[in-house]
Specification:
By secondary structure, the chain is mostly beta strands. Helices cover about 10% and strands about 45% of the residues. The strands form two sheets. A nine-stranded mixed barrel has the order 1-2-3-6-7-8-9-13-14.
Length: about 250
């Protein structure tokens, strides 16, 4: 185990979209099958919708070495007795050490996936596909293509401190995780954690994110992965970025 604090350096892409609570939370998309089978995790506070995010990250330097990551934050959840906070419900990484440490240190429900790229992740255009860890499975469960905007736009610095300025919580809250196999990687936890991630990118640009899923026809359910979202989403391209994750606060429930 590598305890906090962690300082990580990365290149990343962040796409956001609004989800209405009236549409319901698609359990099979919001969670990995392991967490989806745990009522303790999926029913830990009511889902309230709001601003959802998909993040695609390549860490070049972390306390456990480099790895790739895909994160889903499907909006806000009620935390009984503590208000409303965002939550990471589904997340995939490309190596085992960060899987165990993310689960143990912050209740982040990491699982291992295979990342396949067409093009250069650090210089769009490129396409990324995620596959289950099982090498015999050849159908991706997530695909996204990213490309620069067709018009010139200036770069700008970006900081997570902006959340305070626009009235959003600067922390996220994670419920306890169910244990899985192997136990030395898919570890379970017992407490609720309130975590704060501080990030900064001195050079951020806008990109297009194409969410069209292969094999899906126009108008077909989930053609753009998440129900109801448009195919093309504006995203942020964070370059030379730094992430700092400290010790979580244990919440009394």
């Amino acid at each position: 185990m590598v305890p906090p604090p962690w300082t990580c350096h990365y290149t990343g892409y962040v796409g956001s979209f609004y989800v209405s609570p009236s549409t319901g939370l698609p359990r099979d998309l919001a969670y990995d099958p392991h967490e989806a089978s745990s009522d303790r995790f999926t029913e830990a506070g009511a889902w309230k919708g709001g601003l959802a995010m998909i993040q695609l990250l390549r860490y070049t330097s972390t306390p456990v070495g480099p790895y790739d990551e895909m994160i889903l934050i499907p909006g806000n959840f009620n935390v009984p007795g503590h208000g409303s906070y965002t939550r990471i419900t589904r997340i995939y990484v490309s190596q085992r050490d960060t899987t165990y440490n993310g689960r143990k240190n912050w209740n982040i429900p990491k699982h291992i996936a295979r990342f396949k790229y067409t093009g250069d992740f650090c210089a769009p255009p490129f396409t990324v596909q995620l596959f289950p860890e099982d090498p015999t499975i050849e159908t991706p469960f997530f695909t996204a293509s990213l490309k620069p905007l067709s018009i010139w736009t200036p770069s700008f610095p970006f900081s997570s401190r902006i959340t305070k300025w626009i009235g959003l919580p600067d922390s996220f809250v994670q419920p306890p995780l169910p244990e899985g196999e192997p136990k030395n990687i898919i570890c379970g936890t017992d407490d609720w954690f309130k975590c704060q991630a501080k990030l900064y990118s001195p050079k951020t640009k806008l990109v297009w994110m194409d969410m069209k899923q292969p094999g899906k026809k126009s108008g077909e359910a989930r053609e753009n992965w998440w129900p109801g979202i448009r195919r093309w989403q504006i995203g942020m391209w964070l370059q030379n970025a730094q992430l700092d994750l400290g010790d979580p606060e244990i919440l009394k429930m």
